[in-house]
Design brief:
- 43% of the residues lie in helices and 20% in strands.
- It is globular and about 45 Å long.
- Helix 1 runs antiparallel to helix 3.
- With 148 residues, the protein is of the alpha+beta class.
- The protein has a single domain, classed as Beta Polymerase, domain 2.
- The chain has a four-stranded mixed sheet. Strands 5-6 form a two-stranded antiparallel sheet.
Length: 148
Amino acid sequence: MELQKDIREFVELLLSEKVEFLLVGGYALAVHGAPRFTEDIDFLIQVSPENADRIIGVIEKFGFGDLEIERDDFLKADYIIQLGMAPNRIDLLTGIDGTTWNESWNSRIPFELDGLPIQVIGKDQLIRNKLASGRSQDLADAERLQQS
């Protein structure tokens, strides 16, 4: 799976700054054998003071330091920060439906995304997430995941 240049650079920064994150959403679907078109890449970010500091550093180095994104934004439950525009938007999530950070982290699988070693939410937790959201697209995703 090849990443767009800016997204690849962002993932490289996440890794170099040691941000604790998981790939979720549409890209995770593809990892688990149920690909579909998506206009963004979704990362679940662990909520902790140390991780909040790290992700703010990434955002500044990536060139979004002028945005009014604060450390405390990454300490809030179920918060979404969007960087950029579709089809190359980056969504940073501090929570997802149907599962906790610990459950998601404990289910993770290692994956090489465009040559970068990342962690992806496990299939069962991704299904739980999709079912809990209740949106028609997510319910269809869950069904495809269960069949893959």
